[in-house]
Amino acid sequence: MAELAAGAVLPEQIVVADGQSMRVFTLIMHDPNPVHFDAGTVRSLGLGEKPINQGTLNMAYALNAVGAALGGFERLRSFRCRFLGSVYEDDRLVAGGSVEQTADEGGRSSAMCTLWVERADGGRVLEGSAIVDIG
Amino acid sequence: MTASPAAQVPELAELRARLIGHEFPGGEFSVEEHERWLSHEAMKSPPIKPPLLHPVWVLLGSLRGMGMTIEELVALADVSPDGVLFGETELEQLEPLRTGVRYAVSGRIVSLERRQGKRAGTFDVLAFRMEISGTGDDEGRLAASSTQSFLIMRQKRQDG
């Protein structure tokens, strides 16, 4: 597990919002909304030219920055995020974060991390935070 | 979900009285190994030891087991899914979820607030909380919870 001291930067995760993953997630989520797989629907609604990535996938990218640092998610206690923008098929994204502070309480140590996901060409699409056990 | 504003703005007090505390039917869910594999690949997840699940499954499992669809949920607030956007998500993980385990879900609407945005105009923030607990020998033992808010677009701001 990486050292999660205050000020530590989490390893950045570079991902591409590929259409196959969006279609798999449509089935996983039982989500009938065609904006996630049908570009024609997205165009007809005036929302863009390509299918829109599921918010849950954007959320996963942010969490992955923590999971990569921790070697898994067993130490994750909580996570929160808000969605700031849409991600389209083939968008290249960077997810990352940093440790804002650590705390000791009741014999447990925890770290509070800020997290974000940005398009590689700029523009933040998600901001969040996570609390993880570190000892 | 996309965001076309609702045609009329329902009265807030009536909506709050009707919705806050409204309990979902609830239900149960489990996750199969092939769903773990495929979902983790789609999420670009770092390696996770089987049978543990990525924490996004706290929300996915909650939605599976809440006993109603998102369309039915937002219809309670007099809006179609076209007028709704994801707001904030909170997850709490007391223990990682696992494949092959049957979980129970219970949930209810916890808040409804009306706000004004410079660009968005009038919109409501509807939040609901769902809890995932064990079943069988683990019945009642809380494993995780999620709180999700939806932004319900009510009326575009009229400029000029």
Note down, in words, how this protein is organized.
The complex is a heterodimer of chains A (135) and B (160). Chain A is of the alpha+beta class. Helices cover 24% and strands 36% of the residues of chain A. Chain A has helices at residues 19-29, 39-44, 55-70; strands spanning 13-16, 76-83, 92-105, 108-119, 124-133. A 5-stranded antiparallel β-sheet of chain A has the order 1-3-4-5-2, covered by helices on one side. In chain A, a hairpin with a 4-residue loop joins strand 4 and strand 5. In chain A, 41% of the residues are buried. With 160 residues, chain B is an alpha+beta fold. Chain B contains 4 helices and 5 strands; from the N terminus they run H-E-H-H-H-E-E-E-E. Chain B has helices at 12-19, 33-42, 56-65, 70-75, and strands spanning 27-29, 84-93, 103-117, 121-134, 142-155. In chain B, strands 1-3-4-5-2 form a 5-stranded antiparallel β-sheet. In chain B, a hairpin with a 3-residue loop joins strand 3 and strand 4. Chain B starts with 11 loop residues before the first helix and ends in a 5-residue tail after the last strand. Strand 2 of chain A pairs antiparallel with strand 2 of chain B.
The profile of the biggest β sheet of chain A is: 5 strands, antiparallel
Global structural class of chain B:
alpha+beta
- Chain pair sharing the greatest interface: A-B, 37 and 35 residues
| Percent range for β-strand residues of chain A | 35-45%
Rg from Cα of chain B: 18 Å
Morphology of chain A: elongated
Brief descriptors of the model:
heterodimer; A: 135 residues; alpha+beta; five-stranded antiparallel beta sheet; B: 160 residues; 4 helices; 5 strands
Write the layout of secondary structure elements.
The complex is a heterodimer of chains A (135) and B (160).
Chain A: E1 13-16, H1 19-29, H2 39-44, H3 55-70, E2 76-83, E3 92-105, E4 108-119, E5 124-133
Antiparallel strand pairs in A: 1-3, 2-5, 3-4, 4-5
Chain B: H1 12-19, E1 27-29, H2 33-42, H3 56-65, H4 70-75, E2 84-93, E3 103-117, E4 121-134, E5 142-155
Antiparallel strand pairs in B: 1-3, 2-5, 3-4, 4-5
